Amino acid sequence: MISPGPGNGHWVRTRTEEDRAAFLTEKRAEQERMVRPGVGAVVILVVAVCLLVAWLLWAMF
To answer: Which of 5, 6, 23, 29 satisfies CB 3.0 to 4.6 Å to 10 for a cystine?
Structure first.
């Protein structure tokens, strides 16, 4: 449903309880995705650690 805003000529979307629940669910999922590292980040981290170990071994000998 679309209803006019408070006298300023703008239109505001009226949210239902289902819209609110879906929004909150998506917001929580988005926050979880921001905290957990993705597959690409893990691969880059593993490659960086392997390169660091190889460099340290090369420097020792």
So the answer is: 5
Beta carbons of 1 and 15 less than 8 angstroms apart? no
What are 15-61's pLDDT values in tens digits? 788 888 888 999 999 998 888 888 899 999 999 999 999 999 999 98
| 11 three-state secondary structure | strand
Query: Where would I find the H helices in 1-61?
Result: 17-35, 39-60
Cβ–Cβ < 8 Å for 11, 4:
yes
Q: Which residues of 22-38 are buried (b: 16+ CB within 10 A; e: fewer)?
A: eeeeeeeeeeeeeeeee
Residue pointed to by tokens 């880059």: 44
